[in-house]
Design brief:
Elements: H1 3-6, H2 10-17, E1 23-24, H3 25-35, H4 44-56, E2 60-67, E3 70-77, H5 79-103
Helix pairs in contact: 2-5
Protein name: Helix-turn-helix transcriptional regulator
Domain Transcription regulator PadR N-terminal: 14-86
């Protein structure tokens, strides 16, 4: 999937994968990959700056933990993040409907 196609949609997708449980960065990357059927294979240089941005904005909170002797930063959705996710879902549905309406207009026969 082209990076340009993600513009404006990455943040809500990240918030959606941490909606049900706190996850560390690698688990977020894996969840995005799995939920997208393998299409969202984000490089760490894309994901981690987005996580920091979402945390600075107050949509995610994080804490450090040690698992198996390794330090991990775990992210969880805040109440502001829940509101942002709800807004993102609404905006996505509107965007999807608009694009669908243009690309597949009702009553179009598909013939020129």
């Amino acid at each position: 999937m082209k990076a340009d196609a993600l513009r404006g949609h990455l943040d809500p997708m990240i918030l959606a994968v941490v909606e049900s449980e706190p996850l560390h960065g690698y688990a977020i990357m894996e969840a995005l990959l799995e939920r997208s059927g393998g299409e969202l294979d984000l490089p760490t240089g894309t994901l981690y700056p987005a996580l920091r941005r979402l945390e600075r904005a107050g949509y995610l909170a994080s804490e450090w933990s040690t698992v198996g002797g390794r330090k991990r930063r775990t992210y969880q959705l805040t109440s502001a993040g829940q509101k942002m996710l709800a807004t993102g879902k609404t905006e996505w549905e509107t965007f999807r409907a608009v694009v669908e309406g243009v690309l597949r207009p009702k009553g179009a026969s598909g013939q020129a």
